[in-house]
Amino acid sequence: MYGRLKHLVSPLFIFFLVLLIVNDFFLKAAFHNAVTGKLSDFSGLFIFPIFWSAIFPRHKLSVFITTAVLFVFWKSNYSSGIIQFLKPYFSIARTVDPTDLIALFMLLFAWLHIKRVSRPTIGSTLKTRLTAYFIGAIAIFSFCATSQPRYIQFFEQPQYVLLKNPTIRYFNAHDELKFYKRDSLLAVKINYLYIRRPKREDDYSKNRSVEHLDLTVLRLLADSASLIPPGKISMLTLNTDQGTDSLRFNGGRLDGRFTRTKGGKTIIEGFYKMGLEDSIWTIRDTIGGDQIIQAFVNGETTQIKRYSGGKLKSTSTINTRADSIFNTYVQLAVLILCMAGLGYFLYINYRKARPEYLKLRLLWGLLLCFVAPFFVWLFYIGILLLLMNYNQDIFETIAAGIFIFITVCPLMFVIVFLIKLRRPIDIFLYCLLFSLVCSAWTTYTTIEALSN
Fold it and tell me: DSSP characters for 74-94?
């Protein structure tokens, strides 16, 4: 058993495991460059075969060979079919980059590491097992939860920017961009952008992406093109795959009337105000005769009307960011009132039953203190789902569970062994109260994030 587990507690394994998690959860989001992209490959190819060699110690060579084959396959175009098949069920993504294969030499490094005769200096066998199990659990979490795809900001209405004096030659290097060269001008159509995951997926988040869109595109191109100062009006007509777009630019930003025609018919028309949709937009279906009319205020959709055959079929009212903030304040007020009500009910139970209390055997009391945080965590997720305020990823969900355990477990010890439970229902009420407190805190931080 010692020989199987010793490499999981080695300093090198722990170092690369920590490096993998820190890089995937923090460094990639902060920098997202070639270095952070390679760090995950290098770290993963060191810890992955060592971990599975500990699980299957008699098949180390097979584990390393299989790891190499799977890595090469994963980084090739041949894996695209499998990824497309699994995407509806699992959140997976990868970038095809042949230079990533340079990380394969880490397999040799890992092989030499596990073949070393010297053993790391560690404590007793029991301590080794517990430490290795804990590190192994973290390793499994890193394999499953890291390298989540970045958030993609799509644009419902066409988005363009205009640059001048471009020198870019390779127009197919960016899937998210489409280029239209006009003499000394370059019109760039933005299909989507990679951004940090917003707190709410609403038009306000889109507006933040559009705010400096011309500068963002220029940075993506890493080109010697220059921005066009505001005040210079340019009119362009572009033939795209979706139709013929008539554009009006103020500087490098869309500003004024926009139309898209196809087959001699107008299918989209609306107005931009420095890159943001303004006023009324109309989208027509040239085949069925249906149309959608959207109303915008400062780039945020406020109302959508759907017509079919000239008759109104449905009307939808959309909350702006200001509406979302107000509604979240209302949710916070409701949570505080519920907390006050539960607190008052627990106080009444305490006063009526005193000095009697619910007698629990020591073992059951200890078990209650350790199990209660799990129910608090479940109630907490349920409340956020009920409030439609649950947007945590797997890492945030696990982190919330750990925080709740660390906080609630000591409080339950105080309640069970010092304050004393008065009635069986108090167990449920305390769990619900703590979950409301956690939900109120999350709602408050959501308000802060939305407001800032």
Answer: HTSGGGHHHHHHHTTTS----
Contact 181, 166 (CB under 8 A): yes
Rounded to whole angstroms, how far apart are CA atoms 57 and 51? 10
The pLDDT-based confidence of 149 (bands split at 50, 70, 90) is low
The chain-wide mean pLDDT, for the chain, equals 82
Per-residue pLDDT at 89: 44
Using alpha carbons only, give the angle 89, 90, 96 rounded to the nearest 5 degrees.
125
Residue 265, classed as helix, strand or coil, is strand
Distant-in-sequence, close-in-space partners of 447: CB < 8 Å, separation ≥ 6: 325, 328, 329, 332
pTM greater than 0.85? no
**378-397 confidence digits (pLDDT tens):** 889 888 878 776 666 666 77
Count the Cβ atoms, other than its own, within 10 Å of residue 384. 21
Length of the chain: 452
What distances in angstroms separate CA 386 from CA 304, 331, 381, 390, one per listed residue? 25, 10, 9, 9
Closest C-alpha to 107, from 33, 16, 4, 25:
16
- Taking a C-beta distance cutoff of 8 angstroms, is the pair 320, 302 a contact? yes
